[in-house]
Amino acid sequence: MKRVEVKLNLDAVAPLLDVIKSAADRLGPRLAVAPQVPEHDAEFAEAWKRELLAAQQSDVGMLLGLFGADFFASGVIGLDPTNSEAILRASAAIRLELRERHLKDLEDESLESGEIDVEALPEATQRAFAAYVFLATLQEVIVQHLDPTVME
User: Fold this and answer.
1) What is the tally of structural domains in the chain?
2) Of 82, 81, 97, which Cα lies nearest the Cα of 135?
3) How many Å apart are CA 44 and CA 37, to the nearest integer?
4) Residue 57: in which H helix or E strand, if any?
5) What pLDDT digit, counting tens, does each position of 34-52 carry?
6) Which of 3, 38, 51, 64 gets the highest tally of CB atoms within 10 A of its CB?
């Protein structure tokens, strides 16, 4: 099984984890994106939403689990096919939460290109932006190195 180990700078990543954990906590009871469920069957719609929420919570738990005691001892996170899809989904959900809560005043194009005068942003927005970029980079690593549909 292919495995990617990423060594991270603890001093740089630790403050981002606070932002990510806070966003994960806000997401806890709700979905990052409202699902388009058929409303003609309310019982079905509620069951579907509960399943989606449980899956999102599991994914976020897996992402946060990367940054446990082992990470703080070594600075290394391990990515492999058993966790990569969940981490992709969790990263996307948290990025959406960061976007909605802290980065909504930034234009989508600037946000995605990274062409932002970070120093001009308030400190809380700077941290949220850094966490947003960190999660995007984590997603890129997974797609480039663990996605079997990407040609090597």
Assistant:
1) 1
2) 97
3) 9
4) helix 42-65
5) 888 777 788 888 898 999 9
6) 64
